[in-house]
Structure formats: structure tokens, C-alpha cells
Specification:
Elements (H helix, E strand, L loop, with lengths): L2 H10 L1 H9 L22 H6 L1 H8 L1 E12 L2 E12 L4 E7 L13 E6 L2 E5 L10 E5 L16 H7 L3 E12 L2 E11 H7 L2 H13 L4 E8 L5 E12 L4 E12 L25
Antiparallel strand pairs: 1-2, 1-11, 2-3, 3-4, 4-5, 5-6, 7-8, 8-9, 9-10, 10-11
Helix pairs in contact: 4-5, 6-7
Length: 281
């Protein structure tokens, strides 16, 4: 599969086929603030957020639940995913479920996604792809760096984006899934995140910095007492290529069951689809 085909495939997956095609936008306010001590021994919020990705890598692995929310008029649409992630090997597997389409058609088959450094693999993609074949997409070749294209944000890439935090404030103590956490609110810059990211995410975040409507990403992050991300909600904005309008997407990642076993095997070359992807899917 050559680079031109990767770009064409990427343009037909969720960012265009689901997000831009539906002309969705999400609601939610962008939080940010000056860095300050949180009063509970966690220290500087910006420093804690900059360390979040390294803390996940040291932890090893976890289970993950994702959601990507869009809304138009009075209708809200959510794409959901669930799976596991190995932060040291940078490999993950998610099962992503699409909602009904605007015409009320039946639900799509769940899509299996494999997340790897610089690449996204999808099975049950549809669009004329045989059910036993995978579609491979290069993250750096996507205008959003695969932060929204797959209908789920790679958990480690989401954490690496926090390396670009410029301003953050401590909101207070709360709970996520029964676990005590510290809630931080702030804004990250994609350009800064790309410069500070590991080699596997640098090109993808740089592409997102150029491709999104704005490089500023408002977020709410919930870290446990070990500094591990338990919940991360990030808000992205990109330009709908069809309607030339800014589209907002809210991506939420929940991490739990740290240390869970992960066995992700990437497809062989013979199992990757090399044909044309239908443009209307």
C-alpha cells in the first residue's frame, strides 16, 4: 500500500465518513487556568500532567474504555470502544461500536482496532473491505494524527498530548470508578506536545497541530495518587472539508485494571487489504 493510498484510506475512515460527513459538533466548555499548588500534596499541576505519560509507561498496561461524542441539533451521537493497552510496547486493541446512522439504519458491526506506533489497523471496516482483511492507516498521514479518525483516541497518545500543557489548575478531589483522584483542568498545545513526545507520537501530533482548526486542546484530567491517568477528556476542533465549518469532538478515555495482561499481535502483510476503499462509507 503506497503513501497516497494511506491518505485516501484515512480520508474515508471516521473523521470524514462519520464525523465530517455527519457535520457533528460537541458541546462543552474549555477549561484552563494558572498553575498552582493543589493543596493536597500533588505539587504543580503542569508538572504532574507533563509526567502522566511516563507514569503510564512505568505502570505497564491497563484496560481502557473510550468514547467520542458529537452532537447536532438535539441529537447526540457517541462512538464507544473498549479494550487493553500495553504502554511499554505501545500496542493496544479496542473494539469500537458505531451508532446508528442519521437515517436510522441498523447498527454497524463492531470494528476491531489495533493501535501501534505510527499506525492504526482496522478489521470489519466495511466500505468494500473483505471481512477477513485489515485496513492499515499511517497516523502521520492523517490530518488529525489519528486523534479522532479511528473513533477513539490512542490512550498513550492522549497522555503524550499532556506534555504540551501550558496552563492548568487543580479543581479538587473526586472519584472515578470508586478510586480517589485529583481533577485538573487546562489547555495543551499540540506543537509543544509534538516537540516533547516520544518518537512514536512525534509525527502524529505534529500532523494534528497542522490539521486541526486550532492547536489548543482544552482538557480535564483525573490522576490517582500514583499519578496515573484514570480519566482524560480532551476537546478537539477540525474543519469539516465538506461544509468548511469547524467541528468539535469530545474524546474521553477511562483507564483501569492496571497491570492487566495484553497480547496484541499485528496482522501479517498478506492479511492487509490493498484494494480500493469505497468513498461513500
Amino acid at each position: 500500500m503506497d503513501r497516497r493510498q494511506h491518505r485516501r484510506v484515512g480520508g474515508t475512515v471516521f473523521a470524514v465518513g462519520v464525523l465530517a460527513g455527519l457535520g457533528m459538533c460537541c458541546t462543552g466548555c474549555a477549561g484552563s487556568g494558572a498553575a498552582a499548588e493543589d493543596g493536597n500534596g500533588a505539587g504543580d499541576p503542569v508538572t504532574a500532567l507533563h509526567r502522566a505519560a511516563d507514569t503510564l509507561r512505568a505502570t505497564g498496561s491497563s484496560k481502557a474504555t473510550t468514547s467520542m461524542e458529537m452532537a447536532t441539533g438535539g441529537t447526540r451521537v457517541t462512538i464507544r470502544g473498549q479494550g487493553v493497552y500495553d504502554y511499554r510496547k505501545r500496542l493496544g486493541q479496542l473494539t469500537v461500536v458505531l451508532p446508528q446512522d442519521p437515517a436510522g439504519a441498523s447498527e454497524h458491526r463492531p470494528i476491531t482496532e489495533l493501535l501501534a506506533p505510527g499506525a492504526l489497523f482496522m478489521k470489519n471496516r466495511g466500505a468494500g473491505v473483505p471481512s477477513d482483511k485489515w485496513v492499515r492507516v499511517e497516523s502521520a498521514g492523517l490530518s488529525d494524527g489519528n486523534l479522532v479518525t479511528g473513533g477513539a483516541t490512542d490512550p498513550y497518545t492522549a497522555a503524550e498530548l499532556l506534555r504540551g500543557t501550558r496552563a492548568a489548575s487543580y479543581v479538587g478531589r473526586t472519584e472515578v470508578g470508586g478510586i480517589a483522584v485529583r481533577h485538573y483542568r487546562g489547555t495543551a498545545d499540540l506543537n509543544s506536545a509534538a516537540r516533547a513526545a516520544s518518537a512514536g507520537d512525534r509525527a502524529a501530533l505534529a500532523a494534528a497541530a497542522k490539521g486541526f482548526a486550532t492547536a489548543e486542546v482544552p482538557f480535564d484530567a483525573y490522576l490517582d495518587d500514583q499519578g496515573r491517568i484514570r480519566k482524560l477528556r480532551q476537546r478537539f476542533s477540525f474543519v469539516n472539508g465538506l461544509q468548511k465549518a469547524a467541528v468539535a469532538v469530545a474524546s474521553t478515555t477511562l483507564l483501569y485494571d492496571f497491570g492487566a495482561p495484553v497480547d496484541v499481535r499485528l496482522p501479517l502483510g498478506k492479511d492487509i487489504y490493498a484494494g480500493r476503499i469505497a468513498e461513500n462509507n
